[in-house]
Amino acid sequence: MEKSAIDLKRLGENVRFRRQGKGWTLNDLAEKSGISKAYISDLENGAAGKPNIQYVFAIANALGVTLDELLDNAAPRQVDSSRKKRPTEDLPPGLKELQMEMNLSDSEVEMLAQVNFRGNRPKDMEGWRFLLEAIKMLSQRTAQR
């Protein structure tokens, strides 16, 4: 894959993840975005070829996300080693408190801050604690296999 290319598989996964997170069918997203169901299906399956930015924008708009959010991890990025950490005021509610209580590293907090389940994320410290414990349990189960 060339450096400037969009990862179509990842883009399709992002669209599907957000659509299913809203409980929408392909038809629901097609109606809300004005984009054909066939194109959305092809996009979700990585078979749409070079994506039409206007179509992707309409899909993002219908899903209530920005293009940047929809292209997350699909668009190439320059890695900047001097990149600043996320300011603590940008952390979701309850996550900073959990970091303080459990002495979590900045990388663990950043990983948690990016987790969404069906388009949502925890709203308080206990929700973040539950999510962290679930991730730990899953990683232990995976390591045992």
Q: Report the CATH architecture of the largest domain.
A: Orthogonal Bundle
Structural class: mainly alpha
Per the CATH scheme, the topology name of the largest domain is 434 Repressor (Amino-terminal Domain)
- Counted beta strands: 0
The Cα radius of gyration reads: 18 Å
CATH H-level superfamily title of the largest domain: lambda repressor-like DNA-binding domains
What's the CATH class label of the largest domain?
A: Mainly Alpha
Question: Termini separation (Å)?
Answer: 32 Å
The amount of beta strand, in percent, is: under 5%
Strand count, sense and barrel status of the largest sheet are:
none
Explain the overall architecture.
- The protein is an all-alpha fold.
- It has 2 domains: 8-70, Orthogonal Bundle (434 Repressor (Amino-terminal Domain)); 88-144.
- 56% of the residues lie in helices and 0% in strands.
- Helix 1 (8-21) packs across helix 3.
- Mean pLDDT is 79; it is low at 79-84.
Map the helices and strands.
Layout: H1 8-21, H2 26-33, H3 37-44, H4 53-63, H5 67-70, H6 95-102, H7 106-113, H8 125-144
Helix pairs in contact: 1-3, 2-4, 6-8
